[in-house]
Amino acid sequence: FEARNNLAAVLTETHHTEKAIKVLQELLVQQPNYVSAMCNLAQAYLALEKIPLALQLYQQALQLAPSMTDAWHGLIKLNIQAGQFELATRQSDQLLINSQTADDYAIAAYAYSYSGDEAIATGHYQQALIQDKDNVSALLGFAQLQLNLGNKVDCLRLCQQVIINEPDNTDAKLIIVQASKISADDSIFTDLLKKEGELHETQTTLAIPLNFALAKCFDDQQNYTAAAHYYSRGNQLKNSRIVFDKQSHKRSCSALKAHLSANNIAKIKSQAQPSLSNTPIFIVGMPRSGTTLV
Fold first, then answer.
1. CA distances from 110 to 78, 114, 125 (A)
2. Cα–Cα distance between 111 and 84 in angstroms, integer?
3. pLDDT digit string (tens) for 62-110?
4. pLDDT for residue 85
5. First-to-last CA distance in the chain?
């Protein structure tokens, strides 16, 4: 049973999510209270944005094993994905009372970065990296936070640290694409094109960000026809996984309204980095029509 559970975890990690789900469903039929398999199945569902199914499994896992950190990590990620940022930070605080590993600090930092409290997020990422300087989750999460704050140099440094230890880490390369202008002879661009050619048709969890990253690369190279192709493909894959749920949408909107309070906006402004350019930006378009051009 353990070997099959570990296999499923690897399948999810390598974006063979549908295969992982099949293995885990069969395993849980034979071992209904196998908590680790529940968490792995929930993670696979979360990767496919099937939030209600993932939530049910994480809750079931925590009923059977209240202190299981994998279940807490998954539940925090789920609430972030569902837009429940304040709930995610409360859960991360509760997690850190009982467990303070590098992974625990990394997931707590991830929650706080989404809640808009970059100062606490930064502190947690730094604590994670004090414990484990090569912790991939902390390095990538901290890199994305630095990018969001406009600190591209620090972002790229953190991504390069990941690539030194894991040369094939696609997630680091996807962040580098966001932070840099990518030329046609850039090794990152070559690697992402190769990765696209190797993708299996079921690896949609990776195909979506990969298509958008390649679109950005071609856009940087002024190859707008190729960029449009990849943007369109990314949108098609993304739309194919959207299942509209009215109540879930209402909860997300309520969470977003609560998050965009005057206090949170003031906090974000105080932590933002000043622009490095005095060049003005003109925004042209009809309000709320999707026609804005920068």
1. 12, 7, 8
2. 10
3. 899 988 898 999 999 888 887 788 889 999 999 999 899 999 999 999 9
4. 86
5. 54
Place of tokens 């929930």: 42
- Please tell me the predicted confidence (pLDDT) of residue 283: 67
Residue 284 per-residue DSSP state? B
17-49: burial string, b at 16+ Cβ within 10 Å, e else: bbbbbebbeebbeeeeebbbbbbbbbbbbbbbe
pLDDT of residue 199: 78
The owner of tokens 């690369």 is 217
Q: Are 220 and 185 in contact (CB under 8 A)?
A: no
- Residue 101, C-beta contacts closer than 8 angstroms, at least 6 positions apart: 69, 131
Question: Which residues, in sequence order, are CB contacts of 49 under 8 Å at separation 6+?
Answer: 81, 241, 242
How many other C-beta atoms can be found within 10 angstroms of the C-beta atom of residue 199? 14
What local confidence, expressed as pLDDT, does residue 290 receive?
63
Measure the CA–CA gap between 213 and 172, rounded to whole angstroms.
12
- What region does 293 belong to: left with phi over 0, alpha with psi -120 to 50, or beta? beta
Low-confidence ranges of the chain (pLDDT < 70): 201-203, 268, 271-277, 283-294
pLDDT for 274 equals 64
pTM above 0.90, yes or no: no
> b/e string for 170-193 if b means 16 or more Cβ within 10 A?
bbbbbbbbbbbebeeebebbeebe
DSSP output for 95-155:
HHHH---HHHHHHHHHHHHHHT-HHHHHHHHHHHHHH-TT-HHHHHHHHHHHHHTT-HHHH
Place of tokens 């209270």: 33
Neighbours of 95 (CB within 10 A): 22
**Closest residue by Cα to residue 172 from 136, 196, 204:** 136
Q: What pLDDT score does 11 carry?
A: 86
